[in-house]
Write a structure and sequence with these properties.
single chain; about 750 residues; alpha/beta; Phosphorylase Kinase, domain 1; Dimethylsulfoxide Reductase, domain 2; Barwin-like endoglucanases; six-stranded mixed sheet; 26 helices; 28 strands; about 15% strand; globular; binds ligand MGD; binds iron/sulfur cluster; binds molybdenum atom
Amino acid sequence: MPDERTSYRVCPLCEATCGLEIRSRGREVVSIRGDEADVFSRGFICPKAYALKELDADPDRLRTPLVRRNGMLEPATWDEAFAEIERRLVPIIRERGRDAVGVYLGNPSVHSLALSLYGQALLRALGTKNLFSASTVDQMPKQVAVGLMFGTMLSTPVPDLDRTDYLLVLGANPFVSNGSLMTAPDVPGRLRAIRRRGGTVVVVDPRRTRTAAEASEHHFIRPGTDAYFLFGIVHALFADGLVRLGRLAEHTAAVEEVEALARPFAPEAVAGRCGIDAATIRRLARELARAERAAVYARIGTCTQEFGTLASWLVDVINVLTGHLDEVGGAMFTRAATGSPHTRGTPGRGKGVRFGRRRSRVREAPEVYGELPAACLAEEIETPGEGQIRALVTVAGNPVLSTPNGARLDRALASLEFMVSLDIYVNETTRHADVILPGLSPLEQSHYDVILRQLAIRNVATYSPPTFDPPAGHPSEWQTVLRLAAIVAGQGEGADIAALDDFVVMQRVEHEVAAPASPIHGRDPVEIRSLLAPRRGPERLLDLLLRTGPYGDAFGANPGGLSLAVLEANPHGIDLGPLEPRIPEVLRTPSGRIELAPEPIAADVERLRAALERSDGEMVLIGRRDLRSNNSWMHNLRVLVKGNPRCTAQLHPADAARLGIASGELARVTSRVGAIELPVEVTDAIMPGVMSIPHGWGHDLTDVRLAVASAHAGANSNRLADELVLDPLSGNAVLNGLRVAVERAVQPASP
Ligand SMILES: Nc1nc2c(c(=O)[nH]1)N[C@H]1C(S)=C(S)[C@@H](COP(=O)(O)OP(=O)(O)OC[C@H]3O[C@@H](n4cnc5c(=O)[nH]c(N)nc54)[C@H](O)[C@@H]3O)O[C@H]1N2
Ligand SMILES: Nc1nc2c(c(=O)[nH]1)N[C@H]1C(S)=C(S)[C@@H](COP(=O)(O)OP(=O)(O)OC[C@H]3O[C@@H](n4cnc5c(=O)[nH]c(N)nc54)[C@H](O)[C@@H]3O)O[C@H]1N2
Ligand code: SF4
Ligand SMILES: [Mo]
């Protein structure tokens, strides 16, 4: 019997970055526990981490490429799979141009070290304008708002959780999600600590969530109306003389413009629309302004809605107006070890961001950060003409379940000439692929959260080597990505991957030494590359990022600074300290100031004002998350799906009585685009007139190879979400606040 071994790694499943202690024997996982010595998580984990053992062993997780032959996906060798891609994809590019190939990047491409570092190489090689990602069913409104206000797509202030005394939370349920755009292990513990030290947590949500239940106070809000509520606070801050910019005054532009924009939104004017009374809005404004250390934090409920960008913007407007932005205990900017767009370039000034440099072909939706709205994907596949998508590459995504009007996209995918998926399952999306290239088990990959650590509430760096070697002959995902890049670049399926990797690194090194603000500016790129030897792949790129980052050793210029070798010697992570004030240095706007009323956002306020008197439909739909679920893709693990069904429609008792539906009975829910049936759960934790259905379910489609998930199929809430309704500034889908009709379904005959 092989010896038992203990190794440490960071959990890659959500944004919380918890440290794990993994005991293994040979290729077998013996146990998974929280790593008590992890400098950030101190032993905290959630039930999903244990499921890594089952994910690693899941017989449905793909171990070999699949190639479609006579209509069936069949196992193939890696060479056969790449040959098939070359044979089918290259002629499409040659005959119809690069835009004929669409790309969809899913959520795990942000969590995977390989995909976050090498994804760009594939996109560059492909050169398509038809790029889509899960960002436009998620946080794009926040990225648009902070880009315009502070200058880069990742200039997102994060609440300084461990030092704040007052936190206003909207549209987030971190007791379940473990936090988002706010990387921190054990957010529940950190929120409880705020109250324990005498502070206040206020939650605004149409549902009394677990986070709300543990807060100091909770207010129901009508879905989609956060911008009204937040403008009400802004109005009150000005009207009651509570605006106090402090140190930020000289760094902030357009404060008077914000005051003017807020004029139609007095608390009394918005109270009826958002369902929170004017006195409460005024009191919260006052409490926020008077608290010494306070922050407003909002997440997906405020992004995936009709006024997503406005709501996301107003959150930081309030943080600025109350003097809490960039202050200890307020909303602060991370300084990540690998650097970020706001640690590079000239401190305090930059190019800012621009959108709409081109538009989507069919709906003319503006491009945002180089992407088109995921909600446009189906129409770009279906609509003939120059630039029509005829082939698709999906990378770690399941848009049939995660993007609006999933049924339409499902049909569109079936009409493609060719589809390649990088994925680990045959699921609702990848069942349409002609070739599937499997990634590895999370335990067979190295890990570093290059992106999430840029949004962390502390500056922390942790590297995890692979726990197990990949199976013989199974390439790491960065190698798969590079091989695919070589094929679409016309270099053939037999290209030299090591040489390509050298090329990718050399490009980055040359970029660094050419950048005036880089700590290795002017150095010899060949010397730098030799100092990175003998590393390869993601480790080499990560080492480069760390050594040129804000704490880096700068290849000798800053002795004792960070490098990958230092992280390797510290498997429980390195704590680089709490967040520190960074204004003005962090700003990258052309003016060098905080743009409090960016022109595109100010122009959108009229749309909000025009809808002030509008009334909602009788029932509106919102989403929710579950602790033992992760978007669409972990339902094949028994430990996570056992017990009561999770995919239920929550309904207030008054609505249930009116509709004549009892708990456990099936409801039929209909929207403009479709209908689903699912069991009802009657609960007074939800606001009257609102129904909550989680997304990521609906595993009952033919040809998926998910034995466990299919037996716990649930219904796909995105069969209801309307692909034609977007937040106009960000192109983000509207997944919350959707009008639906609800009735009691014809009940199945009892057995
Ligand atoms: N109605 C509604 N819809 C929503 C949301 C909502 O709140 N309501 N939330 C939205 C949000 S926030 C998000 S992020 C999206 C998620 O949307 P997607 O990213 O499209 O979907 P996921 O369910 O995360 O699917 C991830 C895929 O990656 C695969 N995968 C996992 N690990 C790896 C790996 O290491 N390599 C590769 N190649 N593949 C891997 C899985 O098998 C799965 O197919 O859903 C969105 N959709
Ligand atoms: N267990 C688990 N953890 C996850 C995930 C998961 O699927 N499962 N997904 C991960 C991903 S990809 C993401 S992006 C994050 C998301 O992390 P969170 O943003 O915390 O996501 P949710 O738990 O869906 O919380 C959203 C809340 O918004 C509320 N809401 C809906 N509409 C509105 C509205 O109009 N206004 C307001 N104020 N509230 C509204 C909902 O009732 C819900 O409580 O979670 C991540 N973590
Ligand atoms: S909270 Fe997130 S990172 Fe932490 S153990 Fe759970 S899934 Fe993993
Ligand atoms: Mo997400």
